[in-house]
Amino acid sequence: RKQATAYSTSSSDEGFESKPSLTHKAKRALRKRRKLEKETKQLIKQEELKRLHKAQAVQRQLEELEERQRALEIFGVELERELRGEAGTQSSLLMLHQWFELVMEKNKLMRYESELLIIAQELELEDHQSRLEQKLREKMSIDGKSK
């Protein structure tokens, strides 16, 4: 009897010891999960800031590009007027050369503007993807009963 009582007492003691260790493990897992969530949020915030800075840089470049295009347009209009006014002189050849360079410069700026717009669109898509991933994380964190 004593052995049976000792056995049952020891097994019940083990049961009490395993329960606190489970809660300790659960607490540790919960801390790890919270730490991971915090790190993930920090990374997301850093990525958003990077996209924001890049978007601001693109916007600034687009504004500078627009100013440059306006200046070239004004210069082009003046050059065309001079070309139409003079015919057959040496200076008209020089002005014609300047006009072709101006057209090439405008084309180059237009290509650059297209590249910047593509980059801006890419940033918008990355931002949208980030928001969707955040929503997915929030939905995945909901308890199974609530789902």
UniProtKB/TrEMBL annotation:
SMART domains membership: DUF3585
Limits of the BMERB domain: 45-147
InterPro entries: bMERB_dom, F-actin_Monoox_Mical
Biased composition annotated in UniProt, kind: Basic residues: 22-33
PROSITE patterns (UniProt xref): BMERB
Pfam families the UniProt entry points to: bMERB_dom
Region annotation (Disordered) ranges: 1-33
Biased composition (Polar residues): 1-13
PANTHER family referenced in this protein's UniProt entry, alphabetically: [F-ACTIN]-MONOOXYGENASE MICAL2, CALPONIN HOMOLOGY DOMAIN-CONTAINING PROTEIN DDB_G0272472-RELATED
Protein name: MICLK protein
Organism from which the protein derives: Cinclus mexicanus
Annotated gene: Micalcl
